Amino acid sequence: MNKELEALITLQDIDLMIEESNEVEKLGFSITGCSELEKAREEIASRIKKPLLFRYERLRAKLKRAIVPVKNDICLGCFLRQPTSIGAKGREESELFTCENCGRMLYWLD
Amino acid sequence: MQNIELVNLFNENLFIADLKATSKEEVLGELLDLFIKEKIIRNKQIVMEMLHQRETLGSTGIGKGVAIPHGRTTAAIDVVIAFGKTDNGIDFNAIDGKPVNLFFMIIAPPNDDENKYLPALGSLVTILKNDKNRKKLQQITTYSELISILSGEE
Predict the structure, then answer these.
(1) Whether the model pTM is above 0.90
(2) Shortest CA distance to B92 belongs to which of B83, B100, B81?
(3) What is the residue range of A37's domain?
(4) B94 backbone φψ class: left, alpha, beta (φ>0; ψ -120 to 50)
(5) Are strands B10-16 and A105-108 parallel, antiparallel or unpaired?
């Protein structure tokens, strides 16, 4: 798998976790490692080239989710069908693709 | 969330009444393998990384023999719950320091327009806080028994 794609997905997964940590704590879970998780986030962010990281942050600020799953060639961010030609490459996870409609980065689930 | 809605997030093929795992890492791996086998997720490594990061935030072992490893991941499309049980308690760094033998793994997608994930997590915590429910769950051997308890029929 493309290392930057992998790092971006982990980064977003961590961001989602941080975003909902207060609500999760209210449900009765012990949340004690916020600073450790922030450190892990920094380390993962350092693996991503700055322009790509900037793009990730900008997309997150604008659209909440910077990377979205693709299922049956449909971007689950804006529900636009992606060209079949990029689907095969997307599934190989070797390149990073962007939805031409919404601009989000894409991760193929199937 | 109604019990019936919670039950709908379970899947018969994501059920293990006798986990082989003997460690926290193995439990996560064994339950995650079910998601792979069912083609619910494709990349185990990504989801395992998310679960590890979640444990960094705080153990999902909520005490009294129960753990609910959970999280959203870009590598999932829907909220799905797997169940695993072992007769031998496993050290899961639970908040009470006690071994865990009931495991519910919740995997959720990054987008959750129907807002199922947190309500499901909350409902599960409520059910598992009940001593009777936990005792019943420790005895089950079949998926239908699990569903009966979670739906409040038993």
Answers:
(1) yes
(2) B100
(3) 3-108
(4) beta
(5) unpaired
B125/A27 touch (CB, cutoff 8 Å), yes or no? yes
- Phi and psi angles of residue B41, each rounded to the nearest 5 degrees, phi first: -130, 155
Tens digits of residue pLDDT in A41-93 = 999 999 999 999 999 999 999 999 999 999 999 999 999 999 988 888 888 88
Scored b (16 or more CB within 10 A) or e, A33-52 reads beeebeebbeebbeebeeee
- Helices and strands (H and E) in chain B: how many: 6, 6
* Dist CA A13 CA A31 (whole Å): 16
The structural domain count of chain A equals: 1
Q: Is any Cβ of chain A less than 8 angstroms from the Cβ of B139?
A: no
Q: Which chain B residues in 55-74 lie under 8 Å from chain A, judged by CB atoms?
A: 56-60, 62, 68, 71-74
Q: Does A42 touch chain B (CB under 8 A)?
A: no
Cβ separation B45–A93 shorter than 8 A: no
CB < 8 Å to B51, chain A: none
Contact yes or no for B77 and A76 at CB 8 A: yes
Q: What is the ipTM of this complex?
A: 0.91
State whether residue A21 sits within 8 Å of chain B by CB. Answer: yes
The total of structural domains in chain B comes to 1
Give me the CATH number covering residue B12.
Answer: 3.40.930.10
Domain that residue B23 falls in: 3-150
